[in-house]
Amino acid sequence: MSGSRSISVNINPKVAVVTALGTGIVIGAGVAYLYTRFHEHTHLVQQITNLHVSILEVLKKDLTSTQSGQERPCSCGRCSSLSTRSPRFRKTVSFSSTATTASYRTAPEGDSDNNRANDTDYFSPDEDDDEFFDLSADESEGAIVFGSQGDDGRLKREEDQTEEDQLSRLLEQVDSLVEGCEEDQTQAYNLLKAEEQLYYKNAEFLWRLAKSTRNMSCIEEKHGNLESKKTYIFEAYRYAAQALELDEHSAEVHKWYGILAGAKGEFLSTKERIHNGQLFKLHIDRALEIKPQDATLHHLLGRFCYEVAQLSWLERRVAAALFAEVPSATFEETLEHFMAAEKLRPSGWKENRLFIAKCYILMNDFSLASAWLEQAASAPSVTPDDEIVHKEIQELQSKYS
């Protein structure tokens, strides 16, 4: 007995316990470890629960304030726009812990589920293991969105403008410049050319590009650069033709296709020029069917009749040989179209008044011709076209006034 006591005294206490309890030590240690971990886990869960309750209280106050139309003051200076929110906007909050991997999200405002707008949905702890605590505000469209980095909860900011909005802004800017001075018209052309690759399949964009390119040809003509004028005319015609392929129901598309078809005639053979003249008339007539109160279209139809009325006997013979039907017009008919344009745009259109005067000259009514030349000269010169026209007005005034 004494020997056994001596041995027990000299044995390490841990070894003695193992000897006494055998495999029971494993069970005892496991129970002790689990108890400790359970206690720690319970404490951590309680902390998260308290945090969850606190945040829900904040959200409830925030949602109540939002629904009542009150603003929440913010010291950052960027949130003043976050005022009254429509019930259609939703607020989502998602947060998780690497210890619990739990995720919570408030239900969308106005959610019809159980008729509770501000209830909380609880998701499986296994859904978003890789989430991190994230409260990010998405201010686009006035919405506040709190989300995680998951695919479903990833923040998505809407663009400030859709592609259509951007095009609308561009065209509005161009329209404000295209009837202006040389610098304005050049700026309009450059703006459109910069976006050509983006909107090359849009008819509204293309007819404006055709118009602006044709304006550039007038600027080149003003400076005596006739070869550059030709280049711009042919380029403009291509844009107009592309627009016509895309939209055959637009008055502006038909108008500018007709204008450019006629403008090309200056650089073509007699046969081609007559053919393009027919194209001009066809498309101006079509545009007038769509938009009968367009002053420019009446002016253009007058220009066509003016040219036809001046065809020589030889030119008519050539036209008759090439085409089955040769158009005809009188100066009286021509004058009617120019007067219609004047009535629709009485503010003062230099070029239209010039052609009214030219009709009276060809009709040998020099008194009325002089009066209309005076009115044409008094109209303001704004565009490069106006400056070219004004020179012709002065030349005719020196002869008939």
UniProtKB/TrEMBL annotation:
Highest taxon of source: Eukaryota
Family matches, as Gene3D superfamilies: Tetratricopeptide repeat domain (1.25.40.10)
Comp. bias (Acidic residues): 124-133
Localisation per UniProt entry: Cytoplasm, Cytoskeleton
Main subcellular location of this protein, as a coarse class: cytoplasm
Gene Ontology CC annotations of this record: mitochondrion; mitotic spindle pole; spindle microtubule
Keyword Membrane part of the UniProt annotation: yes
Alphabetized UniProt keyword annotations: Cytoplasm, Cytoskeleton, Membrane, Repeat, TPR repeat, Transmembrane, Transmembrane helix
GO molecular-function term, one example from the UniProt record: microtubule binding
Transmembrane segments: 15-35
Keyword Protein transport (UniProt): no
Annotated stretches, region: Disordered: 100-133
Subunit comment: Interacts with microtubules.
Listed name of the protein: Regulator of microtubule dynamics protein 1
